[in-house]
Each structure stands twice: as structure tokens, then as C-alpha cells.
Specification:
By secondary structure, this protein is α+β, with helices and mostly antiparallel strands. It folds into 2 domains: about 5-85, no CATH class; about 85-160, RNA polymerase II/Efflux pump adaptor protein, barrel-sandwich hybrid domain (OB fold (Dihydrolipoamide Acetyltransferase, E2P)). The protein is built from 2 helices and 13 strands.
Amino acid sequence: MKLTEIQDLIKFVSKSGVNEVELETKEIKIVIKTGKQVVYQSAPAQTIAAPAQMIASPLANNVPVSETVTTATTAAATEAATEAKYITIKSPMIGTFYRSSGPDKGSFVNVGDDIEVGKPVCIIEAMKLFNEIESEIKGKIIKVLVDDSTPVEYDQPLFLVDPS
């Protein structure tokens, strides 16, 4: 299964209003859950709420799916709470993400760099046009969310910025 097919599946599930979808093939098992509350009954009853997420594990893995879901959901909830105070710079278009203006050039921004409004943070190539993406906020780069030279979608998070 290709990454784009998995991304399309996640988008479809989040728009459809379904609470959970499981897809299993010979190589991979995917469980996608929406942000609606779901109650899982194991030994003690637990309520787990998580944003739309994907959990993939090889079928040869002997870890029960419920343990995988609980661990991933807890980690996702902790990370989401930490990142809630940050502002996300998102992609304004579909294209290929580049951190620098050329292979021999340095990155526009790195983790820990201070940015100003109007400062270029990356380039997105779309149809052979290289579009410099400028910051619309002032702050410090906390995390780069996309690898260099990878495709990005419209509105995909690119950077986390601490505005303080």
C-alpha cells in the first residue's frame, strides 16, 4: 500500500463520520480512529480519545492491537498537549518541500532559529516554479515537521513555532 493511498484513506475516514476503520493485508494492518470518544473494554474499562491517527504494525508482531492502540494514543495525547502552545506554519500549496535554495546552500531555518515576519522559511516547488514561503509570524522554530525534498499537501504542517 502506498503512502498516498494511506493518506487518502485517512482523509476519507475523517470526513465520513466513522469512529474507527481497520484494514488488514498480508503485510500490514492499519487502524484509523477519529477524534470521537471510543470505549475499549479489557480488564478495566478505559475511555480513549485521540485525533485521527494511523497505527501500522506487521502481522508477525505478537503485541496485541489493543496494547498498541493504547500506547500510541497515550503518546499522541501527551505530544498534542505539549505542541498545543505552538503555532504551525502550514504549506500554502501542493508541491515538493525544500529547506534550502540549492543543494549546496544552507537551510533557510533550523531548529532553534528566531524568525521574523516576512523571512523565508522554505521553498515549495510546484510545476517547476520555486515558491519561497515566508513566515507570517515571529518566533522561534521548535520543530521541522517535513523532510527535505519530500512532497507536501495543501495545508500540511511544515514547522512548529514558539511565538513567545
